[in-house]
Amino acid sequence: MKASDFDYFLPRELIAQEPAKERTAARMMVLHRRDETREHKRVEDIVEYIQPTDLLVVNDTRVIPARIFGHREATGGRVELLFLEEMRPGRWRALMRASRRPRPGTAIILGSGEVRAEVLQVGEGGEVEVALHGKEDFHTFLEREGLPPLPPYIGRNYPNDNRLARDILRYQTVYARRPGAVAAPTAGLHFTRQLLERIAARGTRRVAVTLHVGPGTFRPVKSELVEEHHMEEERYEISEETAAAVNDVRARGGRIVAIGSTVVRTLESSVGGDGYLVPGHGRTKLFIYPPFDFRITDAMLTNFHLPRSTLLMMVSAFAGREFVLEAYREAVERGYRFFSYGDCMLIL
Description:
nine-stranded mixed beta sheet; six-stranded antiparallel barrel; QueA-like; alpha/beta
């Protein structure tokens, strides 16, 4: 299968630069897989499609303010770091952007100068391993001086951008609980506490998994053959309570409604040989593309994704490539807003 099979034309002006004024006001295209029909709704209308026998599964990861600017200690040259994962206390994986490739031993002064980073190893694609030196806990420092890690297609001039306060609020789900993501599980951005209460009032249960989203989730597939693409690992956890709820609903014939592709990936990575969800934690490199046998997921809410992306391939595996691409073409014609701050589709 070729990556070009998942390409489509997207006018640049349809890439959302701002979130909808209200989270639930975003548009929602509803795709019915059985008869391949489509409807055009708003996120607030999702209540019409969720049944009391369904189980809503969300991703409760919390986006950390992982982006921070600094300068080389020796030359003063500007540096940008995106902190990806704490490997052990004081040691982090990060992506580094600078005018010159860093070398082991390069010292970087971060933010206001209270933390110094020393490059220990240099990998591919700008990835580095750094040791951090400072008087306070680095997580505390990041919360104070870090910036939201918005994807590069959302134009911002941080730290001098008057949209910073809004991005801190809106690039986070209302149920975010466990810090660790460097990209938001964007389907969840459409929910408010009030909408979740309306869904709960129908008798629909909600449980959470955790998958700490990494930057690889937005990267397009560069190899022409889809099968040659390698997914980046992402950390996940499924509690005993969540696994029991999923397995109970499936046994009763209810639907598992995944809020976002990260939930789908977590669930489908953790299916036992008997078809039931297995609790636990680990790392997943699962790459879902057509054809794929979904064993847990019955419905999903997801945003509109980049051309040739692994996320578009997952959606195509779930609903059919031609049907999905037709929906994308219609979304373009109707002026839907795309990507992280954009509109969404509910696939039933």
